[in-house]
# Entry
Amino acid sequence: MTTFEFTIDDLAEVRSLARRAAAGTDLAEQVAVAVSELASNAIRHGGGRGVLTIAPVPGGVRVEVRDWGPGLARGVPTEAPKQLAYGGRGLWIVSKLFPQFVLESSPTGVTASVLLHTPAAPNP
# Structure
C-alpha cells in the first residue's frame, strides 16, 4: 500500500503515482486525469491538502483521495455542467471515466475512490 499526503505543490507526483498504479492496464492516463481532478478538489474544497492511498484489492487496485473539508452538499453530478460554468466538472469527469467511482461525504471530509481491474488478477 502507498500513502502520500499532498498539497498543491505535489500534484505532479500525485499524477505520477496514479499512472504507476495503473501500470499494465490501458487506463494510465484516465487514472492520472481522475486522480488529478480528485486531488485538485481536495486542495480547493478540503482544506488545502489531501491524502492519496493506493492499495491492492482482490482483482485490482483501489486508488483513493481523502480530504478534511466540510463534505459535499450534493453528490456526483449526473449531467455535464454548462459549457461556460466556472468549475463543477471534476466529479462529473471522474464518474464518466470510472463508472465504479465511489464518493463518501461527511461533515469531516470526503473520500473518493476508483477501482482498477488489473490483468494480472482475476476480477472479483
